[in-house]
User: Which sequence fits this backbone?
């Protein structure tokens, strides 16, 4: 009797299996097939980095001191000084003097004002070299005369810088700027292009 029961159960399972294979798909399966595929997960939140323009000589905040020195000499000896040169000069000055801006704890407005004055100072130095050249003087052969012309040209700007920074700040500025200017003069003396023809 037990064997007969097992055989009947096996037959019932076989019939059920056969019916299940021949039956149409269950509605749940059909509904699932008609649903659109789930949307892919959103990409992880990554900051959108704007595409940077190609680097130019006028904008390179990662310059080494040697590169900044070469750029200063190029600006002082270039035969032309246009708007792009003025922008390059300003960026060079800001990158060179950024530690001083921080040391003096300047506000953004005062840092911008000092940057403007230092750019004017560079322009005045170029003008002094031009005046020296027109008199047949150059830095290599007439260093004292050229230095006097340069000092006279930059004096009004230096007065404005002193007024902006105050006595202590101006002293710190002079201490910071002195070795930079000495390096520029040394490089000018070694430059193939004479600074007497800016």
Assistant:
């Amino acid at each position: 009797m037990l064997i007969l029961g097992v055989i009947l159960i096996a037959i019932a399972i076989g019939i059920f299996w056969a019916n299940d294979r021949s039956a149409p798909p269950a509605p749940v399966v059909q509904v699932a097939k008609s649903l659109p595929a789930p949307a892919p997960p959103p990409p992880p939140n990554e900051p959108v980095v704007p595409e940077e323009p190609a680097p130019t000589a006028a904008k390179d905040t990662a310059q080494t001191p040697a590169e900044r020195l070469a750029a200063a000499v190029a600006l002082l000896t270039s035969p032309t000084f246009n708007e792009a040169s003025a922008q390059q000069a300003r960026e060079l000055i800001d990158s060179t003097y950024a530690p001083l801006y921080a040391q003096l704890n300047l506000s953004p407005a005062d840092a911008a004002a000092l940057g403007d004055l230092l750019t004017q100072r560079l322009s005045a130095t170029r003008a002094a070299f031009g005046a020296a050249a027109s008199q047949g003087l150059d830095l290599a052969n007439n260093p004292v005369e050229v230095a006097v012309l340069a000092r006279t040209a930059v004096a009004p700007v230096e007065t404005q810088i002193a007024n902006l920074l105050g006595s202590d700040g101006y002293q710190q500025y002079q201490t910071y700027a002195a070795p930079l200017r000495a390096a520029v003069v040394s490089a000018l003396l070694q430059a193939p292009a004479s600074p007497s023809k800016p």
Notes: The chain has a mean pLDDT of 75. The CA atoms of residues 73 and 186 lie 10 Å apart.
